[in-house]
Amino acid sequence: MKNRKHTPAALPTATRLAVAIKRLRGRLREVAPAKLTGLPISQLAILQRLRLENTATAASLAAAEHVSQQAIAQNLAMLKRSGLVQATPDPADGRKSLIKMTTAGRRLFESAIASRDVWLVQAIEATISTQERPALGKAIELLERLADAGNLAS
Asked: Does residue 83 come out as left (phi exceeding 0), alpha (psi in the -120 to 50 range) or beta?
């Protein structure tokens, strides 16, 4: 890893951001999907990805979630045993399987997300003024860009 020069303001901002994300993630864990479903956040993330993409390979899921093939395999095995996802041979490459959420998986996921969203809406309405909401939208856009940033340590 090369030593990179950073602006003096970057470190405190990065630290505050990391702490804020950790706290919000903790609150979301307390109020929603993982508690309601009994599924770890890693499995909910896989279901979310499958909801968005419809089907995916284990390798593409691992890359998208920034985890190892082994971690994805373990999570997929548990989701399959629970009847929440299924695998079918990839018609383009028989060596691969396409993973898809089952109807039961979709129902469970949608129910959990709905309860999380109720809490988030209530929290936003209680803590973010109408005038501040455009700034929240911009902050979300910036967070999405950060989440999509590649490996910058080169």
From this structure: left
Within a domain: 48: yes
Sign of the four-CA dihedral 97, 41, 11, 136: positive
The predicted-structure confidence for 55-113, as pLDDT tens digits, reads as follows 999 999 999 988 999 999 999 999 999 999 999 998 888 888 999 999 999 998 888 77
| Cβ proximity of 39 and 33 under 8 Å | yes
Q: What is the DSSP string of 47-69?
A: HHHHHHHSEE-HHHHHHHHT--H
E-strand ranges in the chain read 55-56, 85-90, 93-101
The total domain count for the chain is 1
- CB 64 within 8 Å of CB 49: yes
Total-model pTM? 0.61
* 106 vs 84: CA distance, rounded Å: 8
Domain with 32, as residue range(s), is: 26-147
Is 3 part of any domain?
no
The owner of tokens 């593409």 is: 60
| Gap between the Cα atoms of 67 and 70, Å rounded | 8
Q: What CATH number did the domain enclosing 57 receive? A: 1.10.10.10
